[in-house]
Predict the structure.
Amino acid sequence: MTEVTTRRNFLKMGAAGASVLPFLKAMPASAQGADTMVVVVGQTINSLDLHRSGTSRAAYQVGINCYDRLVSFGTKEAIGGGLSYDYSVIEPELAESWTVSDDGMTLTFKLKPEAKFWDGRKVTAQDVKWSFDRAVSVGGFPTVQMKAGGLERPEQFIAEDDDTFVIKLDRPSKLTIPDLAVPVPYVINSVEVQANAAADDPWGLEYLHTTPAGSGAFKVTRWSPGEQLVYDRNDDWAGGPLPALKRVVIREVPSPATRRALVERGDVQMAFGIPDKDAAELADTIDVFSTPVENCIHCLCPNFSFEPFQDANVRKAIAYAVPYEDIFQTAAFGRGLSLYGGEAEIPEGDIAWPRKTQYDTDLDKAKELMAASAYPDGFEVPLSISLDLASWMEPTALLVQEALGKIGIKVEIEKIPGANWRTAVLVEKRLPLHLENFGGWLNTPDYYFFWAYKDGHLFNSSNYRNEEIEELVDASLHMEMDDPAYAPMIKRMFDIALEDLPRIPLYQPALNVAANGAEGYEFWFHRQLDVRPIKVT
Amino acid sequence: MQASNTRLRAVLLRCAQAIPVVIGVVVISFLLTRALPGDPAVYFAGVMADEASIEETRVAMGLDKPLPQQFVAYVSDLLRGDLGMSLTSGRPVATDLANRLPASLELTLTALLLACAIAIPLGVLAATRPGTWVDHLCRVVVTAGVSLPTFFTGIVFIFVFYYILGIAPSPLGRLDFIYLDPDHITGFYLIDAALTGDWETWRGAAKQLILPASTLALFTLAPIARMTRASMLTALSSDFIRTARAAGLSGHKVLYTYAFRNALLPVVTTLGMVFSFALGANVLVEKVFAWPGIGSYAVEALVVSDYAAVQGFVLAMALLFVLLNLIIDLLYTAIDPRIGFDSK
C-alpha cells in the first residue's frame, strides 16, 4: 500500500479522512493544525509487522497503534509525572467482555459487534484465531512471548462462532490475560491477508511486512524506513475513544542533539526516547516525562563461573564498594529511581520490585569483607560493557572500576560490539563481570525472577543456581498475586537474591520523553509510543 | 571521427578492465562480511529468542548452509540483479541503494560544487598574491576546514542558524514533513522537482540542502584550495610562464590560459580523491542532519552484521569509483591534450 501511494491519491486519501491537513504541497510549519503531531525518534522502523523475524523494537509501535488486541491495560498516574499504563487493570479493546471458567483453564471472549477492519469487514473470532495461530507458529520473539502466557499451540484457540473466541489453557496462570494485552497478540484481517499472500507464505509475512491489515486506531499511509512513518486516523475505530490526532508523522533523526534542538524549538511536538542528559537539562524548559521503567533494573553482574565470585564475601564486598549515588547521577543524570540504602528486613506483604536493597556505599565494610574472603589481596577481572549501550554502561563501568580498585580488585574495562554482546553475555554467559539491563514486560516479580535468576534462563547471565529459588519461581509464576501463599514466597525470593547477589542492582532506569505542545503522553512497559491518547495543544 | 573512435574504444577498454576489479570486490566483500564478528541470526531473532527460534532465523536467512554454497547463491542472485534483502530496513537492498545513493550524491556533489566555487578562486588569488591578506585568509580557511570535524561544524551550524537565529529550516532530512517527495525520476530531489516543474518542492529541498552542504563544503574545500594554490605557484614560476610574460602576453591570458590550465591537472586529481572520501565521510553529516544517505545506511548495517546491505554498499561504491576514475581520466585528456589514452 505504502509503495503505490502516489502524490495524487495520497492527497485524496488525506482529504477523505481529514478535512484540513498540512500535507499540501507546501505549507509553513506554523500552519500545522491542532490535529497533526510530529514526533522525532532515533531508531529505524524496519517492518510494519511485529511477528516478522528481525523486526526492530522501534517497529513495535505499529503493532500498538495500527492493531487491536482483545484487551488492554488501564491508566494511572506515573511516578515522575504524566501517565502510565496500569498493570493491575485490564480494559476491553476488541473484546466486549470475557469470562474465566471456575478452574481457570478456559477463557471465553465476546467480541465487540461494532468492531470493523479498515476494509469495512467485521472482526470475527476466526480472525482472532488466525492471528493467534500465527503468533505461536511463526517462531522467534512472538512465539516466546505468547508462551509466557501459556499460549503455545493453535489447538488452544477456538472460534466458537463469529463473536465468541475461546482459549483453552494447560494450567491456570495469572500471566495469561496480561499477556493478551502486550503488543504481540494483535488481531489481523485474516481474509485480506490470505487473499493477498503468496502461496508459499501462509502467514502473509511478506504482505504484512509492508501492508498492515488491522482494525486499529491508526492506518499507515506512508512508510520509508530510515526516514519517516505517517499514521492517519481510522475514524471507525471501535477499540476505544476516538483519538484527537488525525495524523501523526514519525520522523527518524539519528542525532540526539538534533532531536533536542527540534523539540526545544517547538517544530516537532515530541522527542521520544531522549538521553538522560538531555532529559535532565530540558526538564526546566519544556515537558519532560522520565518514567522509571517498571520491572527493569540496571545491574552489575558477577558471574559464578569466575572463581573469585563464588565467594559470597567477594560479591558482598563489591556490593558495598559500588558508588551507587555517583552512578545514578553520572550515568542516569538522576532520571529513574535509585535502589540503594533500603532496609534489609522486607515488611510482610511487600512485593514491590525493583526495590531498594540493603546495600550502600561503605568502603570500610567492603574492605572488611574482602579481608575475610579467600582473596584478601584482591584479583584482576575484566568488566564487560556493550558499545551499543555505552551511554549508561561506560560511565558506570568507569566508576565501578575506580571503586573496586580501592578494595584491591583490579578491573579492566572490555568493550564489546553490539552485534556480539547478546551472544557473549546471554547465550554463552561467559563474561566474568558485566553490566546488564533486563526488564520484564509482564510486571510481576516472579516473572523477573523467572528470566533473570533461574538457572540456564536467558537473562541469568551470572550462571546463578539456587535450588530454593528454582522451586519458588516455579511455584509462584502462575499463582494469583492475591493468593495468601504468594507474598511470603516472593519475600523469600527477594531475601535469597539480595543475600546471594548474582545481580547487584544499581538503579532503575527511566524512559525519557520530551513534549513541547503535546499532552496526554502515557508510559507503556513496551517502551514505545502509543499515539492514541495524545493531543496537541 | 578517427579521434572519437579511439576515445570510444579506450572507454570500452577501461570498462572491460573494471570487470576483474568488480569480481574481486564481490569476492572480498562476501568474505569480509562473513568475517565480521557477531551472529546476525542471533541479532535478528530478537532479545527474547530461544535456541530454536535462533535456528529458525538462521535457516530463514540461509546462514546454515556452508560458505561456498552461500556464495554461489549470492552470485546467482547478483547476476539476476537481486542484491538481497536488507534486514535493518526490511526492504530489498537495491531499493535502499536507489533511494539513498542519490541522496548522498546530491549532498556530496552540491558540497563539492560549493567547495570548488570558493576554494579554486581562493587558491588562485592566494598564489598570485603570496603573503598578502588573501593568502592568509586562504590559510585560515584551510586550517579551519581540516581541523573542524564535520559533526561539530554541523551541530554548530544547527545551533546558530536553526536554534538561535531561526533562519535555517528544521534539520529533518531531505524535505520537511510538510512536503511530499517529488516523483522518483533520478532520485536527486532538486533535479526531479525541477523536471516536474514543482518549484515549491524544489525550494524546500534546496533549503534543506544548504546547511549540510555547507558543512561538508567547509571540510572538502581545504585540500582543493591547498592544491590549487600549490600547483598555481609551481605553474607561475615555470619557464613557459616567464616566456609568455616576456613575449608580452596580457596578464589575464598568462594567468588563465597558460598557468591555470596547467595547474588544473593536480586539482582534478584531488577533486576525485576528495569526492571519494567525502562520500564516505559524510556519514557524520548525515547523522546530524537526519539525511537518509548511504553512509549512515552502511554504518548501521555493519553494526548489526547485515550482510546483504554491506555487500550491496561495497559493490555500489566500487562501481561508482570505477566510473569516477573513468571520468577523471577523460577530464585529463580534455584538459591536457598531451595525455592520451594510448599511454595507459
Remarks:
- The two ends of chain B are 21 Å apart (CA to CA).
- The mean pLDDT of chain B is 84.
- Chain B touches chain A through 62 residues (CB under 8 Å).
